[in-house]
Amino acid sequence: MKKKIKNCYLNWKTRFENAKKHRQKIKSAKELAAADTLVDAEAAIQIHHLTMPFKVKFGTYKYALDDVSFTIKKGQFHGFIGDNGAGKTTTIRSILGFYSNYIGKIFINSELAQLEKTKLTIGYIPEVALFPKQLTIREYLIAMARISKIPSKDVIRRVDALLADFGFNTSEFNKSPSQMSSGQKKKIMLMQALLSNPDILIMDEPVANLDPTARNDFYQLIKKLNQAGKTIFISSHILLELEQYIDSYTILKDGKVLESGILAEKNKNIEYNYILELNDNKQILGFLHARQIQYKQNEKNLEVKLTDRQKFSLLGYIAVEKIELIKFSENKFNIDQVFFKGYN
C-alpha cells in the first residue's frame, strides 16, 4: 500500500513538474514572438517562433511545432522538407489560417496572416484531391471561382483561359474530375489554386502518388509559374527530385527547424568546387602540385578548387596521359547530406 501511495505521489509530482516546464516554455515562446518585430518587405512568407503545443494527458505536453522560424523571399521556389509527422502540414495549415491556436507570428507579404486580405494572395493545393462527381471540370472550376469571390464578369473568361493554358480540350473539360488520371486531377487542383491569380502557391505533397512522368509534368508546370514570378512553397519528402527545382529550403524534424537556407549561398561557400575520381588518384597529384591547385584527398576521390581555365587544362592532361577517369563533377551543396545527418 505504501509503495502504491509513493508511486502515485511521484507520478503526480512528475506531472506537475512537466506542467510547470510547459508553462515556462510557452511564456518564453510568447516573449520571443513579441520581441521579434522585424518584418522583411521582400518576404512572401515570414514565420517567427511558431509554436503549437497539445496536451497528451494531464501534465504531459507535446509540440507539433516548436519555435519554428524561417523566411521565404518573393519569387523563390522553396522546398519544405521533412518526414511524415515532422510538422510540415501543421505549419502549412497555420499559414493558411486553418489553425489559430498557435504561438508566434506569421506574415504574408508583410501583413499578419490573420488579416482576410492575405488569403487572397495565396493559392493552395492539398495532398488529396476530392471532387464532386456530379460536376464537370469546367463546372467545378466555375463554382470554385464564384466561391473565391472572383467578379462574375471575369469567371467564365478566367476558367476558359486556364483550361486552354493547361491543354484541356472540350471533350476533356466536359468530363467529371473524378474520372481523370491522378496527374490530370493535380492539374485541375493547380488551376483551382490559380483562379484568383495569387502571388503565392502553397502545395502540400503535390506529387504524392503520381507516376514519374506525371511528377515531371507537374514540376515543369510549377517551374514555369515560378519563372513568371509566383512564389512557390512546396512540401515534400522526395529530396532528389525536389532539389532539381528549388532555390531555397527548410528542413523540419519533430516540429523543429533543422536548417533553412538558400542553395546559391550554400554553393558559394563550398571551398572545393569539383570532385575528381580516378582509377588511381595519385596519378594526378603531380599535375596539381605543379600548378598549385588546391585539393583535398578523400578515401575514394579528390575535391579540387579549379578556375575554368584550370578545369580544361586538367581534363586535357587526363586525356593526353590516358588516365582512367571514373568521375568528374561539380561539388554542389547536397540537401540529402544535411537531411540524413539531422535525421540520424
UniProtKB/TrEMBL annotation:
<dbReference type="InterPro" id="IPR003439">
    <property type="entry name" value="ABC_transporter-like_ATP-bd"/>
</dbReference>
<dbReference type="Pfam" id="PF00005">
    <property type="entry name" value="ABC_tran"/>
</dbReference>
<keyword id="KW-0813">Transport</keyword>
<keyword id="KW-0547">Nucleotide-binding</keyword>
<dbReference type="InterPro" id="IPR027417">
    <property type="entry name" value="P-loop_NTPase"/>
</dbReference>
<dbReference type="GO" id="GO:0005524">
    <property type="term" value="F:ATP binding"/>
</dbReference>
<dbReference type="GO" id="GO:0016887">
    <property type="term" value="F:ATP hydrolysis activity"/>
</dbReference>
<dbReference type="InterPro" id="IPR051782">
    <property type="entry name" value="ABC_Transporter_VariousFunc"/>
</dbReference>
<feature type="domain" description="ABC transporter">
    <location>
        <begin position="45"/>
        <end position="279"/>
    </location>
</feature>
<dbReference type="InterPro" id="IPR003593">
    <property type="entry name" value="AAA+_ATPase"/>
</dbReference>
<keyword id="KW-0067">ATP-binding</keyword>
<protein>
    <submittedName>
        <fullName>ABC transporter ATP-binding protein</fullName>
    </submittedName>
</protein>
